[in-house]
Amino acid sequence: MTYWCHIFSVVILIHEPNYHIMKKLFLIGAILFASFNMNAQFTAGVSGGLPIGDAGDLATFAIAVDLGYLFEISDEFSAGPTAGYSHSFGDEETFGPITISVEDVQFIPIGGAARYEVATNFTLGGDVGYAIGINDGNDGGFYYSPRAQYSVSELIDIVFAYRGVAADGGSWDILSLGLEFGID
User: Fold this and answer.
1) What are the backbone dihedrals phi and psi of residue 126, each rounded to the nearest 5 degrees, phi first?
2) What is the number of structural domains in the chain?
3) Which domain holds residue 7?
4) What pLDDT was estimated at residue 147?
């Protein structure tokens, strides 16, 4: 008799509705449903840049690639996550008869992006987050990138950006020009 009582109580516990779990599952489902119904666009960008400031003393040229997923918050404003890769090519410094080669500097910036269309075909925005340093001795730092974009077509923008990584009292700064592609 005791055996059947335990089985019966386990069955009741399994079938007894837990409203807290049901609320959480409903909320997760609603968020997933809303995110699939929101207007969003993948973006991919490629750019070349000139290191400036301290970075200009140590590097000659930089390239960057970016990926993003921007949600349309309103007709003019979009925001979402972004990630990328930045590679600055080291320079050679000569001190009298001694020449020192500076190693390349690489970052993986991860953060959030925001874009605001101020006029037809013209957008201002920025990225903010953390840039992970890849090369030896590069600890990374706070990443910021204000930008201006001009749409040459519905899916292609020309982007002028200032890319900075602030770390340990200094910064690694690049002025870049590139293309951003909207991927539907």
Assistant:
1) -170, 160
2) 2
3) 1-37
4) 98
